[in-house]
Write a structure and sequence with these properties.
697 residues, alpha/beta, Rossmann fold, eight-stranded mixed β-sheet, seven-stranded mixed β-sheet, 26 strands
């Protein structure tokens, strides 16, 4: 009866009694087709109509509205799915759809999530239409809705895994990271892993990290370097990102379980220093804070490129947070002098040290370039500036290149699960495909990709810190085309060891120029490799890292002038070190003889090493001998003796070292000595050439 009555009423009104579904393809065509297919599955018993932009191209909102009224005059609209993916090209069609069926709209976003906008949920509807993910639009800050049921989740489980055996010779340090630094899926992991390797030469390392289900294969390389690995679950943060004074990334890593584990293990194992990786972990209060990028500078670039309330708020929060915390650490490590200058405005740079990014020069070695026109971009989508860079290149530069050549190909290494990060940052469901673009996920070994490419590109628009991918490409002897932002802080020079271009037209022109001129391309590539060899090897960078930590700890020795009663110890040290000069110990007292006396309670007073020097001219000295007892080697006692000498006597210092004594030569080179000559037959027992080394302190 009811159905029959409805039919009669609608026939009197001149409409079909059965409601239809009118879908609006008001966004990316692929997403629109997926939306249309889904609504057909959800409502299979209704007639479906799809409105595509080409049907109404060039018309105003009111003209489209009028056309819709004419077209569907005989029908009743039951539902109107509309795609709101933010694409400005379809704004007119979206407005006309809302004007035509305001109470029937089923909004889809770029993730193909759906929501019924309405006056009953105005805030949620506005947030959804602005691109906020569905699972976050109903979040309310705790201070505004203390009764809300959904809360952030803080895992309490801590997993502690034993690594290599500890040694009484090595001092103990801790490193805190927001992720486990293996596999080497992005630049941050590459840096942390390589510096763990360098620090492990001197220290027992306790690595604290937020885990993500690491496999035993992932754990093994790091366990070989660390005494312990402590993994905590990452919190599930459920507050609106705009609602806190501290940046949301800080809250995402606040873990009571991690705080408790740090306190317990630091006390139990008497850890002497804690290095905290990344600015958002600063509230864990360590001794060294490593700023992989100056975060407020990154958000300032975003604000300048996309002015708005949200970008201004993010910039203000990060600037306030960063300024507050850099003064609370004994040392703040940055990647470049440019970053030091940025932070130095707040505290004169008194606690800021530069330890740059580096590259494994033994692994990334030059290979002959193959013929072709192959471009390579390595940038994990986990770090959102790489998504910005990819879109800039593909949407603005790539079309220019394709108009001029059909031979150019482009390979992208986007890191693990790139689609996940793509959707989070762009709101788009998929990465637009292209037959000439090869998009790879995580690649364990990128060297074959560098070998097959002819140019490495770094189209980065927003960045802070320095880019490891630039150093790797140069180490592999490949020319690099980069924006100013992409190669900032690396001391590179346009046209000499890199080609810098910032506009789409200039970037495309740079690629064409270098692909077309092999001689220029090779010259830039060779200069880039030389620049990296001189400045960015992990071994020399690791020496700076170890020195920084060592300087924060109490010295294991007291350095003082030798006395008569020290001669028995000096004699024993000299006899135990046949590779050093062999003198009558009494003769040492005629020169400047310094001894390193152990300062610890159990062996205090024992002489562990000695160094003898003399003045040969004004501000010029010769180091005659340096030796450390075998029981106390690898404790960096020789380093402390040399550093004390250089500090006491500024000027030029010379020394000789056996040509075969590779360990001593590495020590001197790490402190800045350079080989300047050789003296054949300088040493006896056995006869050997002496290498003359020099430093200006």
């Amino acid at each position: 009866m009811k159905t029959a009555l409805k039919r009669i009423i609608f026939r009197l009104l001149g409409k079909d009694p059965e409601a239809i579904v009118v879908s609006f393809a008001s966004g990316d065509p692929e997403l629109a087709q997926q939306m249309y297919a889904e609504i057909q599955r959800l409502v299979p018993d209704r007639k479906h109509v799809l409105i595509v932009p080409t049907d109404l191209a060039g018309r105003s909102t009111l003209a489209i509205y009028s056309e819709l009224r004419k077209r569907f005059r005989a029908y009743r609209i039951g539902q109107a799915p509309v795609l709101f993916d933010g694409d400005p090209r379809f704004r007119t069609l979206r407005r006309a759809a809302v004007l035509y069926a305001p109470t029937k709209i089923l909004a889809y976003n770029a993730r193909l999530e759906r929501h019924h906008p309405g006056l009953g949920t105005p805030i949620a509807s506005l947030l959804f239409l602005r691109g906020v993910p569905l699972d976050r639009i109903f979040l309310r800050p705790r201070w505004l809705a203390p009764w809300k049921k959904e809360r952030s989740v803080y895992p309490s489980k801590i997993e502690e895994i034993a690594g290599r055996p500890m040694s009484p010779r090595r001092r103990r340090i801790a490193v805190l990271s927001p992720y486990f630094p293996y596999p080497l899926a992005h630049g941050g992991a590459v840096r942390i892993f390589n510096l763990l390797r360098e620090m492990s030469e001197e220290f027992d390392i306790f690595l604290f990290a937020f885990g993500d289900g690491e496999s035993s294969e992932d754990l093994r390389p790091v366990l070989d370097l660390c005494a312990r690995v402590i993994l905590a679950g990452k919190p599930r943060y459920r507050e609106p990102r705009w609602s806190t004074l501290a940046p949301p990334e800080v809250h995402e890593f606040r873990s009571p379980a991690m705080t408790a584990a740090l306190a317990r293990i630091r006390a139990e194992f008497k850890i002497e220093a804690l290095q905290v990786e990344y600015t958002m972990l600063a509230p864990y209060r360590g001794d060294v804070l490593v700023e992989h990028d100056v975060t407020f500078a990154l958000y300032r670039q975003i604000r300048d490129r996309s002015p708005g309330i949200a970008s201004r708020w993010d910039y203000w929060r990060w600037r306030r947070f960063e300024k507050r915390w850099i003064g609370r650490y004994s040392k703040v490590v940055v990647m470049s002098e440019q970053d030091r200058a940025l932070l130095g405005r707040w505290n004169d740079g008194r606690n800021i040290a530069v330890i740059p990014n580096g590259v494994d020069l033994e692994r990334f070695t030059p290979e002959i370039e193959r013929p072709g026109q192959h471009l390579l971009f390595i940038g994990s989508f986990r770090h959102f500036p790489n998504i910005v860079a990819y879109r800039f290149f593909v949407e603005e530069v790539w079309p220019i290149l394709c108009r001029g050549s059909s031979q150019i190909t482009f390979t992208v290494v986007a890191g693990p699960v790139p689609l996940l990060y793509w959707r989070e940052h762009t709101g788009l469901l998929s990465i637009p495909p292209d037959d000439r673009i090869r998009l790879l996920e995580f690649v364990a070994d990128v060297r074959p990709l560098y070998i097959e490419c002819n140019l490495a590109i770094v189209p980065t628009l927003v960045s802070a810190g320095t880019n490891l991918k630039v150093l790797e490409a140069m180490a592999m002897d490949r020319a690099v085309v980069s924006t100013s932002s992409g190669c900032a802080g690396l001391g590179l020079e346009h046209g000499v060891n890199v080609w810098i271009a910032d506009t789409p037209e200039d970037f495309a022109c740079a690629i064409r120029t270098l692909l077309g001129d092999e001689s220029v391309r090779r010259r830039i590539a060779e200069a880039g490799r030389l620049h990296v060899e001189r400045n960015y090897g992990w071994r020399q960078i690791g020496a700076h890292q170890r020195s920084l930590l060592r300087d924060l700890m109490p010295s294991r020795v007291r350095i003082r002038a030798a006395q008569e009663h020290d001669l028995p110890d000096i004699t024993a040290i000299q006899r135990s070190a046949p590779e050093s000069s062999q003198w009558d110990p009494h003769d040492y007292l005629a020169f400047d003889c310094q001894v390193a006396e152990l300062a610890d309670a159990t062996r205090g007073g024992r002489i562990a090493g000695l160094m003898v020097s003399r003045s040969v001219a004004d501000k010029e000295r010769e180091i005659l001998n340096i030796a450390v007892h075998p029981d106390f080697r690898r404790l960096h006692i020789a380093t402390e003796l040399l550093q004390a000498e250089l500090a006491r006597w500024p000027g030029v210092h010379f020394l000789e070292v056996r040509e075969s004594n590779a360990a001593a030569r590495r020590l001197y080179e790490g402190l800045g000595f350079q080989a300047v000559g050789a003296r054949p037959g300088y040493y006896d027992n056995p006869p050997e050439t002496g290498i003359v080394m020099r430093i200006l302190s």
